[in-house]
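S.,

Sequence below, as promised.
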Amino acid sequence: MTATDASSAGQDTRDIPSRREAAEMAALSIDGISHSYGTRRALIDVGFSVAPASFTALLGLNGAGKSTLFSLVTRLFGIQHGHIGIFGHDIARSPGEALRLLGVVFQPRTLDLDLSVTQNLLYHAALHGIGRREARARSHEVLARIGLSDRAASKVRDLSGGQMRRLEIARALLHRPRLLLLDEATVGLDVKARADILTHVRRLVAEQGIGVLWATHLFDEIDASDDLVVLHQGRILAQGKVARVIADAGGSDINTAFMRLTGAAGQNGGQTS
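The prediction came back faster than expected:
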C-alpha cells in the first residue's frame, strides 16, 4: 500500500514513506530495470531494494541476469529502461555521487598479479583520488581487518584463492563505501575459504553498517536472517525475508522453495536470459 492508498483508506500516513522517500532511504534502489542484448531479454522489469546495514542475497542460476544487473549498477552498461539509485543518488543523473558510495567485487578477478598486495591497494586508492599518506594508512587498516597484514609485501600471485578474494574485498572498501556488491565472490574457493569470506562480509554489515548485495547460486550461502531476492531468467520471482519466501513458495527450505518457484516459472514460459 502506498501513502496515497493509505490516505484514501482513511489511515494515518505520517509514518508511511512515499515511493520516492523509500528509494532515498535505500542503500540500493532498483526500479523497473529491463535490459536486452539485441532481441534477447536479459532483465525484465526488475525491481527491489537493499536496506542500509543489511545483507541481501540475490539468488539465481548462471544466466539468470545477476551479472548484467551488476554491470548496470556499476555503469559498465548504460540503463535502457528503469532507474537505479544509491542512497538517493540516481546513477544516470549523478553518477559521481552514487559511485563514490559503492564498492564492488566482480566474479572475474581483477588484481594485478605482479604487484604486491599493498601496491594493488595504493593503485586503487589513487584512482579514487586518495593521497598517498592516507592511502597507506587505509591500506594498513583494511589489511589488518581481513587478516592479511603479514602478506602486505607479497606479490598477489603468491596468495591463495581465498586470500585474493579477501584482498579484493579490502580494495573495494578502501574508499569507505556504504554499499558493497559482490558477484559470486566465492566461486572456485574451498569450503573453508567460502565460509571465511561470508563471515567477514557479514561482520562488515554488523560492525560497520554497510549494505551488502551478495549474488550467488549457492543455497548454503544464504542465512535465515537475510533478505532474499530470487532472480530467474531475467525476472524477479520472489523477494523478502528468507522465511517468508520459503513459506509463500510452499517449500520446506530454500532449496525446495527455489525449485518450486523456478519450476512454476518454466511452466509459464519464462524466457532464457
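Residues 1-8, 269-273 have pLDDT under 50 and may be disordered.

Coffee later?
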